[in-house]
Amino acid sequence: MRTMGLDVGSKTVGVAMSDAFGWTAQGLKTLEINEAEEQYGFDAIGSLIEEYEVNKVVVGLPKNMNGTIGPRGEASQFYAEELRKRFGLPVILWDERLTTVAAERVLLEADVSRKKRKKVIDKMAAAMILQGYLDSQSK
After folding, report:
1. Among 2, 10, 16, 3, which residue's Cα sits nearest to residue 99?
2. What is the set of domains in the chain, with CATH numbers?
3. Between 65 and 22, where is the model more confident?
4. d(CA 100, CA 7)
5. What is the DSSP-derived secondary structure letter of residue 31?
6. Cα(17)–Cα(5) distance, rounded to whole angstroms?
7. Quick one: CA dihedral 34, 38, 39, 42, positive or negative?
8. Closest CA to 59 of 9, 24, 108
9. How many percent of the chain have pLDDT more than 90?
């Protein structure tokens, strides 16, 4: 059984998957969504849950730096609740402050072009969210 990590935005969802042992996270893909038109990519998420035999989902929760929940955090809470209802799996909200910033920094240091960064940043952020959760579980 695997754990799926999600970095939920208004236009994309970065997807990461753990290995079978739950030790490491790998960026898997970026799904196109349209929050404004209520297209959230749940069918694609469901297919991945089935294909990878996922038993738990970790959704990044973007908190403000002072710990409060803003509009993006509320959107992630909604997304997590929908996943719970639709798939009946445990869904953990994981503090993701600065993961996208950290992912961007890693890609900049690796001298990845802006065009290529845009394609991989969300799945990389999802992998960082998931790895943070996995690391917390092994302690």
Report:
1. 16
2. 2-137 (3.30.420.140)
3. 22
4. 9
5. E
6. 6
7. positive
8. 9
9. 68
Q: What are the φ and ψ backbone dihedral angles of 2, each rounded to 5 degrees?
A: -120, 165
Please report, in angstroms and rounded to a whole number, the separation of the first and last CA atoms in the chain: 20
Residue 108, Cβ neighbours under 10 Å: how many? 11
Tokens of 26: 């790998």
* Per-residue confidence (pLDDT) for residue 98, from 0 to 100: 64
Can you state the angle between helices 71-87 and 42-51, rounded to 10 degrees?
Answer: 50
Enumerate the β-bridge partners of residue 12.
32
Provide the whole-model pTM: 0.89
More confident residue, 68 or 83: 83
User: Residue 78 carries which side chain, given as an amino acid letter?
Assistant: F
- Residue 134 near residue 117 (C-beta atoms within 8 A): no
For residue 122, the model assigns a pLDDT of: 86
What tokens appear for 87 in the block? 């798939």
